[in-house]
Amino acid sequence: MTMTLQEITEKIRIFRDERDWEQFHNPKDMAMALSIEAGELMEQFLWKTPEEVTTRVFEKREQIEEEVADVAIYLVELADILNIDLFAAMERKIAKNSAKYPAEKVRGSSMKYNEYGA
Length: 118
Description:
Elements: H1 5-18, H2 27-43, H3 50-59, H4 61-81, H5 86-100, H6 103-106
């Protein structure tokens, strides 16, 4: 069963509220928690070669999925707290990045927008 963003947001709210955690879930602390969880995800791959990453993803898939889920949960809740329509914000950012990084100029390049020239 696939859930909508609204449905998963409501599940996250219910989980939080059943534990009386809303008092701790302010924007600053949620942003910090999001960063910490992203760090835990990065730790899964730290010092690994591309080949080791492939093996690790296979061997530690459940742990990696849990870290990805933690990042997503905190991001969804932070967006909810800030009253940000996450999908709309993502669409706007993709459009902005499309203008900043025109495919015909940056295809196959990892340069930043200010490095590839106008």
